[in-house]
Structure formats: C-alpha cells, structure tokens
Amino acid sequence: MVPVEAPHEIDLTDPTSPVVPRGWVPAGTPIIVVGIVDEHEMFALGIRTCLAESPLVKVATVVDEDVDVVIVSPKMAEERRFPAPLVICGEPPKKLAPGNEVMAVLGRATLTADHLVASIHAAAAGLRVVHEDRSASPRLAGRGLEVLSLLAAGADTKEIAEQLGYSDRTIKSVIRDVQQRLGVKNRVQAVAEGIRQGLI
Questions:
Q1: For the chain, which terminal residue's Cβ has fewer other Cβ atoms within 10 angstroms, N or C?
Q2: Dihedrals φ, ψ of 88, to 5°?
Q3: How many CB atoms lie within 10 A of CB 33?
Q4: Domains and CATH numbers, the chain
Q5: Rounded to an integer, what distance in angstroms lies between the CA atom of residue 178 and that of residue 139?
Q6: Using alpha carbons only, what angle is made at residue 149 by residues 147 and 155, rounded to the nearest 5 degrees?
Q7: Residue pLDDT, tens place only, 40-54
C-alpha cells in the first residue's frame, strides 16, 4: 500500500479540490475551537449542527480564552466583549463593544455551511472576509481609516480630534469624506459599511 499525502490546502469553492473525509483529520492538523453566542437558541443550535459536520472545527460549550473564533449575533457583538475574533451572523452591528474584532459579517438569509466554515478558517488565520460585491468600492487609507476606526470604537468628534491632534473642523471634514467614499449618509452607516468591507 502506497501512503497518500494529505493536501495542504483545500479550496472550498473548487469542486475538483480534494475534500477531507468526514471524521478523519490528518495528524498534526490544528482544530479550530469555536464558540457560539446568539440570543436565539434555535439559530445557535442550527449553527452547532452545521459545524458538527466539519472535522476541523470543534464547538466549545463555554466561550472563554480557549476559543479561537466566536460566532455571534449583532446584538451580542454590541453588548459583550469576546476574547477571540468574531464572525457575525446577521446585519453589521451599529456599534461594537470595546475590544471586539469583527473578521466577517454573514447575512442570515444567505448563510450556507460552506460560507460559515470558510469564514471561521479565515478568522482563525487573522483574515477578514469581504463580500465580493463590496470589494470594488473605494477603499480608505490613512487618516480616514483612523477616524473610521475611532468612530467604530464610540468616539465623538472632539475625542477623535484630541486623540489624533487635529481640530474639530478637520475631523468633521474627514468624516464627511469617509461617508462620501463609502456611499453612506451618516456615521452609523459609515461604521456599518466599514465592517461590511472589512476595513475595521
């Protein structure tokens, strides 16, 4: 019998790519520990059931420092601080709890098990998931990105100006520019769009 080498990469979008058989994990392959926090028990159970089919993901019973990624609802991302990167199932939250890092936002209406597992792997690797239809929009850089990040953290104009060393008037101008580049009408929408695009 000739030993077969396990693939180092699996492309979930390529139907010809080899797939790891269910229940079999090559020796030394890291398992991603995932926590699930959602106010809707039935939805959380559905997510748990989807993830049970992946041999590379283990669902934790408690969300603590040992989890690698946390799947949360928008409400939980707004209310609680989590010790690991987040995959949000639902609309982007209006405001994140301080310290939370969003790596993916997946709409519940279009959520598939493959998208969820791929997003978990990306988040565990420190990669942000951006929807393809959003990736072509103008990107932010420099001061605009700094200001958007501070808005997402809950800072107001005066706090941003003090932290970055600019006048209130300059910060208001930067915020208007950010809103225009993202195609939104207010600060809340700018933060939501920044999360959708993986900018913050």
A1: N
A2: -95, 130
A3: 18
A4: 32-129 (3.40.50.2300), 136-196 (1.10.10.10)
A5: 10
A6: 75
A7: 988 888 899 889 888
CA torsion sign for 143, 164, 101, 123 is positive
Q: Please give the single-letter amino acid code of residue 69.
A: V
Q: How far apart are CA 172 and CA 81, in angstroms?
A: 29
Question: How far is 137 from 189, CA to CA, in rounded Å?
Answer: 15
pTM of the model: 0.55
Question: Which 3 state secondary structure label does DSSP give 37?
Answer: strand
Q: Provide the token pair at 42.
A: 């039935």
Cβ–Cβ under 8 Å, residues 123 and 87: yes
124-172 confidence digits (pLDDT tens): 988 888 754 444 445 677 888 899 989 888 889 999 999 999 999 999 9
